[in-house]
Amino acid sequence: MDTQYLNQMGSIIWTLDSPLSTWSITFYDKTEEEEMKKRWAACLYEAGSQRMFHDLSEYDQRMVVESYQIDQVTGIKEENTGYVASDFMEFEEDDEDYEEEYEEEYGTQKQQEYGQKQKGPKNKLLVDSVRHQRAFVGRGNAIGVFRRDTDDAVFDTMINNLQTPEGITLNPKTMMLHNQEGEILMTHPDQQHAKTAGKIYKLDLNKGKVVEAYQAAPEWTVDRIGVVQKYSEQLNQEVFVGLNNNSVFGIDPRIRSEHKGIGNLASYRYKTNPKFTCFATSMKGELVVGAQDGQIRMYSGTPGLDKLTGNGLNPKTAKTALPGCGDPIRGLDVTANGDWIVATCDTYLLAIPTHNVKDAQKNGFNSRLGQYKPTPRRLQLLPLDRARIGKTIKFTPARFNTGVDGEIWIITSTGDYLISWNFRKVKQNQLCDYAMKRMGDTISAEQFLSVPQHASGADAPILVLLNDDVCLEKRHQVSHNPYKARPTF
Asked: At 357, is the secondary structure helix, strand, or coil?
């Protein structure tokens, strides 16, 4: 149930799925309004997290309630709170003539060489390489390779029959580029099998096959892997990060031991299982971790790794824990400078500033925020667009664009709709400034085209992974405001 609080009208607005309908209550007594909003938020939090709302601190309770306000006062000062030319970006409409020419030139090849598995596994995983100018698509026990330096993503080749060194079929659960993008690291979906549990497999892109397997520690599972610092996949960086449901840890393939976990991994395990689900890192190595109960933990860096200041190791405990809204965190991304986090839940995103609201020089990665936690911006589709989609909303993990310009856009999708939020306006609490495009097939994943960390990425096209295809979706500048035509409710 999507909920919004509209303070200027003294109302609560909510949308139900079955059947799709939108409802509203307007209050004429301010005290009753505030009490109802608090109780409403408490019920949603407890239903999602299975935790008691009153167990939260007073400050965290207020943070949860305020996150539903779509017209909250942010306190953020911007030089230009109006619209600028770069805000007026819309998805390009498909050109029917171009589509016919493209199908004649590439369609048959794609169908024969890549789409031959249409009755089998579908596209699932996507990583994009600056170095190779290629997108790598995980599909069953194969990886499709697509050129993406043209007007569209063009099928290049397949890496077929992925297997572990022991000869076990490998259908990757997760993939990441590694070590100057010369390798793809992968995990096996079966983390209970003795021969695959906790293993990370290295695919050498020059050889086109799995050449090595790493294990963090004995009887240790690995559910997610990722970079130790944003952009480090482009660098000569061997260390990477692993995650399971109750620990987050560093892995270094150079360790001369059967087990590659950094430090005593058992000491980094939480005694009470927090049910971690995902993580992301900033350029400084700051780490944010999401959990099944909606909590978001902020660490100075990956536990057990050297602090960037050179003063000891990063601790196991988080500097700051944000309560979330009670729903599982399905994806995380963080800006390169660590100033903002975007967290993905099934039906909404949370854009969260990381700074201390009383002291902008401090953030939740390097100091405890306590009562000075900032209020998240809740990004969700308006009822009119919910009706347009006509299906249950389930967002794919949202991502920022990258590049030296800073983060300007947030991209996600649900079903066959691609959705882009204007992040510059989100920071000003204009939460309905988003554009949508229907792609015609279910979207599995999407991301802005990767760029070198010192290159511009503001106008980067978007790689879109469909069930049986990969598209390069472009946007163009328009003279009108593409957002104002959409009513609030």
From this structure: coil
Q: Is 48 left (phi over 0), alpha (psi -120 to 50) or beta?
A: alpha
How many CB atoms neighbour CB 292 within 10 A? 18
The dihedral through the CA atoms of 151, 157, 163, 165 has a sign that is negative
User: Can you state the percent helix, strand and coil of the chain, rounding each to 5?
Assistant: 15, 35, 50
Between CA 64 and CA 11 the distance in angstroms is: 17
Mean pLDDT of 426-448: 92
pLDDT tops 70 at residue 138: yes
* Per-residue CA distances from 429 to 274, 341, 381, 421 (Å): 31, 15, 15, 12
Q: What is the pLDDT of residue 290?
A: 97
Which pTM does this prediction carry? 0.91
Q: 136 near 126, Cβ under 8 Å? A: yes
Q: Which residue has the tokens 């309908």?
A: 21
User: Residue 31: how many CB atoms within 10 A of its CB?
Assistant: 8
Q: Which two tokens stand for residue 434?
A: 């988003």
Which pLDDT tens digit goes with each residue over 198-212?
999 999 999 999 999
Q: How is residue 474 written in tokens? A: 């472009």
Residues 6+ apart with CB under 8 A from 97: none
In this structure, the chain runs to a length of: 489
Q: 196: how many CB neighbours lie within 10 A of its CB?
A: 19
Kindly indicate the confidence band of residue 85, based on its pLDDT and cuts at 50, 70 and 90.
low
| pLDDT tens by residue, 38-74 | 999 999 999 999 999 999 999 999 999 988 887 655 4
Give the span between the Cα atoms of 462 and 423, in whole angstroms.
Answer: 16
87 φ/ψ angles, rounded to the nearest 5 degrees: -75, -25
The tokens for 74 are 């942010």
The C-alpha angle with vertex 148 and arms to 242 and 187, in degrees rounded to 5, equals: 20
Tokens of 352: 């969260």
